[in-house]
Design a protein that fits this description.
By secondary structure, this protein is α/β, with parallel strands linked by helices. 56% of the residues lie in helices and 12% in strands. A six-stranded mixed beta sheet has the order 3-2-1-4-5-6, with helices on both faces.
Length: 272
């Protein structure tokens, strides 16, 4: 019991000594001066940061105002920049895997219309591979064929010319009746100047490449993140395909690039 009393006394003595030392230090003029100096410095730094933040906010608002002004100007000038750039040209717009409702497709259709193009929209309701299999079975009898790769290439060729170029309205109609695609615009055409293919969220590159290869020497513009230009080089030695890959035209410069890419191609589908 005696030892416990001694321990308690020692604890209280230490506590009292600590309080005494703390009080002496707080009353020390040098310590008080250092504290005041630190508080003043922190206060000045905070005021400078507030002033800098206010200036940054003003600059940001000015940049936003300038951006809005330039964007408004670009939207007004864009129709004039592209007016008649594609006048009379017929464009086949191929929408893959639900791409017909995407912002990119809407922007492309508006852009082509502003440039004076005649657009024929072909919407694939099923993946390209399904259409190729359907055409293989329909046209070539894939079950008895010794060369499936050859039949796939032939099917892609039929798809390219019958549906994309619109040479065979009967076959296109059968594909529509089978629920494999939809066509908005002329079902047939004497010529197509260019083909624009828009990727969907689940577009598979290989069957799309087979379709692009079947387009041979003609101008093709691929739009969407699923495409890489290196993957769409023509495989045929005789092919002279003009294949361009670009992201979705979300800005005025990108939409202008789309128009100029199509305007620069002199080759026409249907005229070798």
């Amino acid at each position: 019991m005696r030892y416990h009393i001694v321990s308690l006394v020692a604890v209280f003595l230490a506590l009292g000594l600590g309080i005494l030392i703390g009080t002496i230090m707080v009353q020390d003029p040098d310590v008080l001066e250092a504290q005041d100096s630190l508080i003043k410095q922190l206060s000045d730094d905070l005021k400078r940061l507030d002033a800098q933040n206010a200036q940054d906010r003003e600059r940001l608002e000015a940049v936003r105002a300038l951006h809005d002004e330039l964007e408004s100007w670009a939207n007004e000038m864009f129709p004039l920049l592209v007016s008649n750039r594609l006048f009379g040209r017929q464009i086949a717009l191929v929408c893959l895997d639900g791409a017909e409702t995407s912002e990119e497709t809407v922007a492309i259709r508006e852009t082509l219309s502003a440039a004076g193009a005649l657009t024929r929209v072909v919407t694939f309701l099923r993946p390209v591979s399904d259409l190729l299999v359907w055409l293989e079975d329909y046209s070539f009898g894939i079950d008895s064929s010794p060369n499936r790769n050859s039949d796939t290439s032939k099917a892609a060729l039929v798809l390219a010319y019958s549906v994309v170029a619109g040479y065979d309205s009967v076959l296109s109609g059968q594909l529509v009746e089978a629920g494999l695609l939809e066509i908005d615009g002329p079902s047939d055409s004497s010529r197509i100047d260019s083909v624009v293919v828009v990727s969907g969220p689940n577009s598979a590159v290989l069957p799309v490449k087979t379709l692009v290869d079947a387009l041979g020497e003609y101008t093709v513009l691929l739009v969407g993140s699923a495409f890489r230009e290196s993957e769409f080089k023509p495989t045929s030695e005789k092919a002279d395909s003009s294949v361009t890959v670009m992201d979705g035209p979300k800005t005025i410069p990108q939409r202008y690039k789309l128009v100029m890419s199509l305007a620069g191609g002199e080759r026409r589908l249907g005229s070798r």
